[in-house]
Amino acid sequence: MESDVRDGIWEMMEKIKSREGEPVDLEGFLMHSIGNVVFNLVFGKTWNENDETWRKLMSLQEEGTKLIGVAGPINFLPILRFLPKFKKIIRYIETGIVYSHDIYQKILEDFKRDLPPGGGFDDNTTGETHFLGAFHRKMVEMKNERSFYTLEQFNYLMADLWGAGVDTTMTTLRWFFLYVAHYQNVQLKIQKEMDDVLNDKNLRLEDVPSLPYLQACISEAQRLRSVTPLGIPHGTLQDTVLDGYHIPKGTMIVPLQWAIHMSPTYHKNPGTYDPSRFLDDEGKYSKPEAFIPFQTGKRICLGEDYAKTLLYLYGGTILQNFNLSLETDPDFTGEVGITLTPKPHRIIFSCRK
Questions:
Q1: How far apart are CA 155 and CA 130, in angstroms?
Q2: What is the reported pTM?
Q3: What is each CA distance from 277 to 130, 224, 225, in whole angstroms?
Q4: 217 known ligand binder
Q5: Residue 267 counted as domain residue
Q6: How many folded domains does the chain comprise?
Q7: 3-class state of residue 21 by DSSP
Q8: Which residues contact residue 29 at a Cβ distance below 8 angstroms, ignoring those fewer than 6 apart?
């Protein structure tokens, strides 16, 4: 898995090198690179950047994420779905779902066609190098039972795994690169740490525990600009009483991640980018209890470890190889959809080696 991630990073860096010294909007580069890496993990397939189907999938992902955020009030006022503005949004999202699911079905059929004779698995063929293979195996094993492993669940699960994995990780990296491009002293300190630890060696995941300042800087970007400021909604399974308030069964619970990450009760000067809050007195990485970018409890994000792999390898490798600067003063307010994304900006990359 790590080698696939590194391949994606090096491909993206070649594109950056071809634009060295020019202001670059990194969003498109990251969307293709991370999108392909995550798509390969989920579906066992990668795409050419100019493939029309891939460009359509990326467009649906980007626009759909924005529109789902705009349509959020429908969860609380369902009558809004009849207004022209929201009807148009819902129609776009539904059309995108049908298109995406058709693509997933074609990939599944291609996968099944390439299985051993008989269409099943033997002891030496797990088909579990990606989520699609693992899910299909369970569908085959449980085809005569009522179970979660249905084609409908397959479509929605694959969409969740790919869509959520790409958007949140890409957005976090965009914030991180924007902050280190602005705070040059932070960037230089990260690079010195990496130079001291790695010398001329390429960054590997096993090196990350020896790079506490890199970890702290990425975590501080996650805290200060919570990618999912409202968190992911949950629901009560039974009538509940909390601090004297009665919460009926089936109530939507919005965890409001932003309030936790920006609370002065838990974080001194919460509006300031200060990676040192993630370091202990010995300079080792230390995660505060009130830092929950992947939420917490039994429903914690199942992709946390993989997302960290992408963040550390992409973030660290780019800074190991490039100096980043901005052509104009940054705007850190962001744009709110289902995620909080940076406003359009461009970064200038210059090779360090």
A1: 15
A2: 0.91
A3: 37, 12, 15
A4: no
A5: yes
A6: 1
A7: coil
A8: 12, 15, 16
